[in-house]
Specification:
Elements lengths: L8 E4 L1 H5 L8 H12 L3 E5 L4 H11 L9 E4 L4 E4 L4 E5 L4 H13 L5 E3 L3 E4 L4 H10 L2 E4 L3 H5 L6 E4 L2 H15 L4 E6 L2 E5 L5 H12 L6 E5 L5 H6 L2 E4 L5 H6 L2 E2 L8 H9 L2
Parallel strand pairs: 1-2, 1-12, 2-3, 7-8, 12-13, 13-14
Antiparallel strand pairs: 3-4, 4-5, 6-7, 6-9, 9-11, 10-11
Length: 274
Amino acid sequence: MNSKLDVKLIALDLDDTLLNSERQIDDKTVEALQECAKRGIYIVLCSGRAEDAILPFVRRLEIAGQEAGRYIAAINGCSIFDLHTRQQIFCRKVDSDILLETDRIAEEWGLRSEVYTPSTIYYREETKWTKLDVDLCGLKGEEVKEYQEFLKQGFTKMLVPGEPEVLLKLQDTLRKEFGERAVIFTSKPYFLEILPPNCGKGEAITWLAEHVGIPVEQTMAFGDAFNDESMIRLCGYGVCMCNGQEEIKKIADFVTEKDNNNSGIADFLYKHVL
């Protein structure tokens, strides 16, 4: 009797999930995902990063030329990009008035906000926090003189970086201010994210599954943190890394036996899928 899980699409968070502490994908994990792709299972990298910041990891997997490797989900699910046609096929943006008000409140708190395009992070001025994000993502950083005017065009995501204890208080303030008009959470302790309503990694992956004709019951998601919550919850099989946050483990269907520094994804796939 075949005890393997019936999976046709696998969505993978990057930091602390697919990537080890050196921000690399280890060889065993590459081999496991390549084998999945050979079997026709879609492999979708799904990150809070912008499109261009995901591409180096797509290249590492060497599956982008296959049907199974043609899609990536960026900006925590606000954007889905088709690598074959080089077109964005799904996009959600934060209302410009929310961007403007978040920036105003952040400034009152002595913080700076940032917004993103596929290749660039924009901000009013460079700080140690904006530099941290630029270095982490591998994108260009650019100062914008008329920043508030710039925000009026709308963007997929706004991020406010800063000290974790300050951001937790700001998170509460913004959630009370906007209610259900925006999704607000800390993706890392020092990154507070503001996203469109009813939008997340899970919503993006379920949309993509329907787009390619795969029942949601045949989707699997790997993640570790709060920005992975919706795809862990909404996908057919939600898998939390054993190094993940306890709240995410509680809602997951499975928890890996090995962590992101010990080929945890590959270990799970060989035991349950391949």
